[in-house]
Write a structure and sequence with these properties.
Blueprint: E1 2-8, H1 17-25, E2 35-40, E3 43-49, E4 62-63, E5 69-77, H2 80-89, H3 99-110, E6 120-128, E7 133-138, E8 147-151, E9 154-158, H4 161-165, H5 176-185, E10 199-200, E11 205-210, E12 213-218, H6 233-250, E13 258-261, H7 266-278, E14 284-290, H8 298-308, E15 311-317, H9 319-333, H10 342-354, E16 359-361, H11 366-370, H12 374-387, H13 396-401, H14 406-410, H15 413-419, H16 424-427, H17 435-441, H18 450-455, H19 461-466, H20 478-505, E17 510-512, H21 518-524, H22 529-532, H23 540-545, H24 552-556, H25 567-570, H26 581-587, H27 589-595, H28 600-611, H29 618-638
Parallel strand pairs: 13-14, 13-16, 14-15, 16-17
Antiparallel strand pairs: 1-3, 1-9, 2-3, 4-5, 5-6, 6-7, 7-11, 8-9, 8-10, 11-12
Helix pairs in contact: 2-3, 6-7, 6-21, 9-10, 9-29, 10-20, 27-28, 28-29
């Protein structure tokens, strides 16, 4: 993967090379192996390279053999070998063997629709000299980021927001609506950010900029219109296994070694097993372990290591490591966070880099694609309870589902009924599956200042989210409605960014995601819910497809959500002097009041609670991390015009 940035001037003048250089410099961590800048009339393209394929011949920005096209590209087209052969048979010309050139020749022959044939992860900008337009595209699920803004009619784009902020004309303002969305859904609504007038090209979309005007359109979308209700188990399992093997195989294509993350759970273990049993590639695996036993999966990781006989490395994560690294995590994430879970992943990618690797295969996407999250079980139980709301036994299933959430275990039934939304009107809500999560997350907004609340008066982020639902959403099964919300929301807006690309690229590591191969996703969308979740057994089809690839104990274990210590990482009552200086500074009452986003008195009470070791509920933990991360965001980006003095 790499970093890309660029400018297209509306009045025909050429962009300032020094500005392009500053934009590229902000992306050095994404591409430490080289930097290139191209200026051609009104357009300027900047690129920082992480060399993975064709190490000598893949420098960018890259011109087509014809000289009519130039591309600035971040990503991998995994089926580039097959595409190259097809393009050559139709007159395509190549001067290198890298996948970048495949984009140029595919566009030359097929135009905008070329992206529909790409199997990969990408964000690119292609300058077409024939009509003086800029064509941009982003992969189907948003594995790789692409942001844009307008400054006085000029169009700017970049892989990260900090590169846009390196342009002197880009304003630095927090968008209250984007923040409100994040503090409800965990992420801004697709296309939006927490920065005013800075936007994200939505996953599965392309865009063309010409004569100062921009047009966007979708070329792919999640859909469950073609579910095969009669699909038999044997056909489902066989086809899923076949697709996953090939998705994994082509994601091992590289001119550098490829490793694999190993969490100890089903998803990563299956991928590691496929590499070991269905390819000739060596298997180097990497894991994160926790000092806190409640978060640690080392036992299961080691079981997989022994089963597959991998060459394995582990990074040990302590609470103080999370607190130490959190400011750097925010610098790379460029958005507030509600959990510390990304911090250990930053440590993990650091271990990969120290081990001499640049690429890892990782298991993100399996839960969204194949139905693995507790939220899917939870919704099923809630509907089951809603059918008999007076039942005393049915709500016990919810307590059993979340043994690690002490606040739920201790609450009376009346509280559970209200918290989990089992009223008849809730059952018909299109957001039914996500109402409890969004309700709990929204509690963070109680800490907003009066001024921030006033700026949001009359705004309802859920209504705005409702306007983004597909036209045929109501016709899908409740299970698939929940999958769609999770895939287009948490996966795209949080996991692939804050726990994916940003924590990988913070250490110049490329992640590859076989479960997000579009063939896997499109087939999985046809699988009926009964084969995704059998009773309350999540990812049933995947478990069957994975037989023989991982230890039976791993294939059969109940999913353990990936979590990390939150409030206690920053305020440990047993070691009160260990709180980092930056945490004290960001949460100091005078600083909170001056920044104006949160109510200083309310935050002060929360901090006192955390110091005393009493901020143990999920809501308190999310609030503390959310407030701290937002304060850091303001410090690092809004109030720091030079972008200097921040962790890199």
């Amino acid at each position: 993967m790499c970093g890309i940035a660029g400018i297209i001037c509306a009045d025909g003048r050429s962009p300032d090379r020094a500005v392009l250089d500053r934009m590229a410099a902000a992306l050095t961590h994404r591409g430490p192996d080289g930097r290139g800048i191209m200026i051609d009339g009104p357009v300027g393209l900047a690129h920082t390279r992480l060399a993975i394929v064709d190490l000598e011949g893949g420098r960018q920005p890259m011109d087509s053999v014809s000289g009519k096209l130039t591309v600035c590209y971040n990503g991998e087209i995994f089926n580039h070998l097959e595409l190259r052969q097809d393009l050559q048979s139709r007159g395509g010309r190549f001067a290198s063997r890298c996948d970048t050139e495949v984009i140029l020749e595919a566009y030359a022959l097929e135009g905008e629709s070329c992206v529909e044939k790409f199997n990969g992860q990408w964000a690119f900008a292609l300058w077409d000299r024939r009509d003086q337009s800029l064509f941009l595209s982003r992969d189907r699920v948003g594995i790789l980021p692409l942001y844009y803004t307008f400054v006085g009619g000029d169009f700017l784009f970049a892989s990260e927001i900090k590169a846009l902020l390196a342009h002197p004309g880009v304003s630095r303002e927090l968008d209250p609506r984007g923040l409100d969305q994040l503090m409800t859904f965990w992420h801004p609504i697709p296309g939006q950010t927490v920065f005013r007038n800075i936007f994200e090209l939505q996953p599965g979309h392309s865009m063309r900029v010409r004569d100062g005007a921009a047009k966007r359109w979708p070329y792919w979308a999640w859909t469950y219109d073609d579910v095969d209700a009669g699909m038999d188990e044997e056909t489902c399992v066989g086809r899923l296994r076949e697709l996953l093997i090939d998705a994994t195989r082509i994601r091992l294509r590289a001119d550098v070694p490829v490793g694999a993350y190993l969490s100890g759970g089903l998803d990563s273990s299956v991928l590691a097993g496929m590499v070991r049993k269905h390819t000739d590639a060596p298997l180097r695996t990497f894991s994160v372990a926790f000092d806190d036993a409640g978060f640690d999966e080392s036992e299961h990781q080691q079981e997989v290591v022994r089963f597959l006989e991998t060459d394995h490395s582990v990074v040990q994560c302590r609470r103080q490591d999370i607190a130490r690294d959190f400011a750097r995590v925010l610098w790379h994430a460029e958005r507030p966070m509600l959990r510390t879970a990304p911090a250990p992943l930053m440590q993990l990618s650091g271990l990969v880099r120290q081990s001499g690797y640049k690429v890892v295969v990782t298991g993100e996407g399996a839960d969204e694609v194949l139905g693995g999250y507790d939220i899917f079980k939870e919704a099923k139980i809630r509907r089951f309870w809603g059918e008999q709301p007076q039942s005393r036994r049915r709500p016990l299933l919810l307590r059993k589902l979340y043994p690690y959430l002490k606040d739920i275990q201790a609450q009376p039934e009346a509280y559970l009924k209200a918290f989990f939304h089992v009223r008849p009107e809730d059952l018909n809500d299109p957001f039914f599956s996500h109402l409890p999560r969004w309700g709990m997350t929204g509690g963070i907004k109680l800490f907003l200042s009066a001024a921030m609340r006033d700026s949001l008066r009359g705004y309802d982020c859920r209504e705005e989210m409702r306007s983004h639902l597909p036209a045929n959403f109501a016709r899908w099964s409740p299970f698939h409605q929940a999958q769609h919300l999770e895939a287009t929301g948490l996966l795209q807006g949080y996991l692939l960014s804050s726990q994916g690309d940003r924590m990988l690229m913070g250490n110049s590591i490329e992640g590859r995601f076989p479960y997000l191969d579009h063939r896997v996703m499109e087939f999985a969308a046809t699988i009926p819910p009964r084969l995704k979740m059998k009773g309350l057994r999540e990812k049933y089809a995947l478990r069957k497809a994975a037989e023989g690839l991982a230890p039976p104990s791993v294939l059969n274990r109940v999913k353990q959500p990936y979590r990390a210590p939150d409030a206690v990482s920053f305020f440990d009552p047993a070691n009160p002097g260990a709180t980092p200086e930056y945490v004290e500074e960001m949460l100091e009452p005078g600083r909170v009041a001056k920044d104006g986003i949160f109510d200083a008195a309310a935050v002060g009470k929360l901090v006192a609670k955390a110091r005393a070791g009493k901020a143990t509920s999920a809501r308190d933990n999310m609030a503390l991390v959310g407030v701290l991360s937002t304060q850091l965001l303001v410090h690092q980006f809004i109030n720091n015009p030079s972008l200097e003095g921040c962790p890199t």
